[in-house]
Amino acid sequence: MNTRIIYGLLLAILMVIAPHADHLPLWLSSLCAGVLLWRTYLNHNGSALPNRWLLMLVTLGSAGGIALEFHTLFGREVGVALLILLSTLKLMELRTLRDATALVYLACFIIITNFFYSQSIPTALYMLASLLVIVSSWVQINAPGIALKPRLRIAAILLLQAIPLTLVLFVLFPRVQGPLWGMPQDAYASSGLSDQMAPGSLSKLSLSDAVAFRVSYSTQAPGREQMYWRGPVLWDFDGRTWTQGRTLAPLPPQLTELDQAIDYSVTLEPHNRTWLFALDMPDKLSIPSQQTYDFQLVQKAPVRARLRYEARSHLSYHANLHETERNLKRALQLPAALNPRARQLAAQWRNAGGNDATVIQTALGYFNQQGFRYTLEPPLLGFHSVDDFLFTSRQGFCEHYASSFVFLMRAAGIPARVVTGYQGGEYNDFGNYYIVRQSDAHAWAEVWLKDRGWVRVDPTAAIAPSRVQRGLSAALPDNAALPFMARNPPQWLNNLRLNWDALANQWNQWVLGYNSERQFAFLTRLGMESITWQKIALNMLFALGIVISLFALFMLRHLLARQPDPVQLAWLRLCRKLARAGLPPRASHEGAQDYAARIGALRPDLSASIDDLAARYNALRYGNLADEPAQHEFIRRATALKVRRV
Amino acid sequence: MNTSLHNVIRQAEQIILGKPRQIRLALACLLARGHLLIEDMPGVGKTTLAHVLARTLGLQFQRIQFTSDLLPADILGVSVFQRDEASGGEFKFHPGPIFAQMILADEVNRATPKAQSALLEAMEEQQVTIEGMTRPLPAPFFVIATQNPAHQIGTFPLPESQLDRFLMRIQMGYPDAQAERGLLSGVDRREIVAHLEPQLGGEELFALQQQVRQVFVSPALLDYIQAILRYSRESAQYTHGLSPRAGLALLSAARAWALLDGRGTVTPEDVQAILPGVVSHRLQAVGAYQKPDGDALAQALVEAVAIP
């Protein structure tokens, strides 16, 4: 086979399997790289392919290796690994054009598997480039003589021509519930808030640039310091870790005296947990979900696909004014015999007289004035973690402040609990929405006051007000080990990344997030009624039919425009007639007179008539006499010529 | 066919034995107002061909032997001061060998690029500029350059851009056994050449050149030429495709060939006949150490393009 074809296929396979090196076992990646290098070497030297038995041995051996590595031969990971292994080894038995074509299809298939692991725009662009290389290899297999540039052009045109069909399939192919890529059992990245909080858990999270969710407001956006995105509410403390604890009684939560309504929509990245995030305090939600008694929004199943929902929240509210006795008791519990100094301090505040509000103010003032520092890298805390923090280290991140504040409140007899979630968000001017990242993770406190219900108190705001007003980077010293995106980068870079995020948001919303609900909504807007998937499928087939017919019509017109003239058709028929009679066929580059001379030499009986026909043909086709009778005469003679087999 | 043209061919074939194709190609090249490059080993009849053509066509003939110390003035001519008693004297131009209707530039690759370009500029412009004075060259003006493909030491091979000035490049090749026998047993060729009668005059040649332009070319044939050009550009076998100038060269050479055949229309066979001569010095194979023969490349080109 042509060595250039093989180089093309090597490049195509390399491009599609390279991204898989990220998650394949190292030995398998090395094996594939080795096979590619070996094949390149063989191709360069024009050496023979390896023995089939050796190949069989390598195949079975490495398939066995995969089985050992994954402990199974079924499932997606294994399937992808096997596909890559076998496609790479297929290069070693590339003997016929049929093998090459099969490899082209395999490469296309591997492209799809890459989307199991990443569906970002760069991945899509890279795969498009790979597809171009694959298609151009395919062109090369079918027409080996074409140089690189025209070949790439043909491949690009082929891909462009595929766009209408792609669009029809994308818009109209009936969707199943769930993400476009991936299987139901997919464990999506679970980096995000967890259902417990220990010292260090949130500061670890703030090192991540990953987007948690995006928000666009349909009403006026609230101030940054009001954007508390409520997540898990933590009740129980064991001296070190806060947890959600027992499930609350399934009572409807009470929200009263609501004011300052905010409407917005959230596009939540999959986080493999059941809860949803909403602005304090959420009231209405567009998708089915349950609101627990402590105002968390919870779904039945973990969020494994990007999820979009509309919500309404109220910034001013009275939450659970009539809290149950049981819950109030729970909100006062503290681990026994821990943190004696903190208890003492709280008791001191309580005994100083004044109501709950005064105690809260005293506590906040304490944080503010006793030299506490806000830092991502607090020193480790000892057994009495709250005492250690309050009296010794006095350096902490929001979880330290929330935790110790709630501890102090409970010790002072005020029902309190920890709320985790996100605070703030970055405004994207280009897309008019807010990006909330993992680095915006936050923890704050809620205390229950008799006449106001649960009230949010953020001790972090007391020590580092800029954290709440302007974001993490403003509150931390410049040299803190913050993720790149949470710093304040130069203006142009900031614009660039906001632009990029706006684009990625559109991509998420309209390409990856085009699920069955969006499809229904879109088609309804197009005027389709009572949509069923059968109806969508029929419409898809219909649209495909239209697109293909349009292409066919276009090509037909092209063909008709290039129809050969009747004289040429008659000549070509004559040549076929001669070939059928056992004479050598005319080569495509052979002129009429040359062919006539060749035939004449073989069959002297035909010589005179065929010479005459060739001369007439040349005169008619290449002469300047557009003589219709002569044309008919030629066609008549050419048709009348009888060629007998000898 | 034009009888005098026929006589020219007949006469040339009597002297240069066994090379009818080369004779016709050279003549076609002349009729198409192109210049000819003959590339072959010494002693295969390059010079004789030029002589014969000059004699039978009745053209003034000049031969320039190119050497490495040849200067442009040796080709173009020089002004010399001439004393005169009455006026005191003046510069008088002594025209060089270029002022002739047929030039044989022998071993053109032996001269330095400077001397080569003096000749090649004259070929392109049909005029020369010497000491600020533009002097027209005689018409018709036809250059036959020869070069030796072997023994390249101390030569200056013509660059592609200058090769492109030649309408055709042909190779003579050894004569076959029968022709060689005739050559060995016959009279000295030079003596015959000296006694040749001109068959054509300058006027007649000019008229024939005009006639070449009248030869009809059908759209179907233009399709064919375009298909050849397109293939040469899209194929991976050549470093560069054929230029539009090469396309024009194909067309005019094919017209001349048809005229030599006594036809008023060009057929694909005409194109195929002149194609090796026209494209072999314009195409280069990709990535070959041993450059394949230009004719082999041209033949491959002919066979790769179907006649539309």
How far apart the termini of chain B lie comes to: 28 Å
Which secondary-structure class do the elements of chain A indicate? alpha+beta
Report low-confidence residues of chain A grouped into runs of 5 or more. Answer: 182-189
The unreliable regions of chain B are none
Q: What's the story with the biggest beta sheet of chain A?
A: 6 strands, antiparallel
- Beta-strand percentage range of chain B: 5-15%
| Largest interface: pair, residues per side | A-B, 22 and 23 residues
Strand element count of chain B: 9
Structural class call of chain B reads alpha/beta
Major beta sheet, strand line-up of chain A: 9-12-6-2-17-16
Explain what this protein looks like in three dimensions:
Chain A has 646 residues and is of the alpha+beta class. Chain A has four domains: 3-161, no CATH class; 196-242 and 258-486, no CATH class; 516-561, no CATH class; 566-640, no CATH class. The longest helix of chain A has 29 residues, at 533-561. Chain A is elongated. Mean pLDDT of chain A is 85; it is low at 182-189. By secondary structure, chain B is of the alpha/beta class. Chain B has two domains: 1-213, P-loop containing nucleotide triphosphate hydrolases (Rossmann fold, 3-Layer(aba) Sandwich), CATH 3.40.50; 215-308, Helicase, Ruva Protein, domain 3 (Orthogonal Bundle), CATH 1.10.8. Chain B is 46% helix and 14% strand. Chain B contains 13 helices and nine strands. The interface between A and B is medium-sized, with 22 and 23 residues.
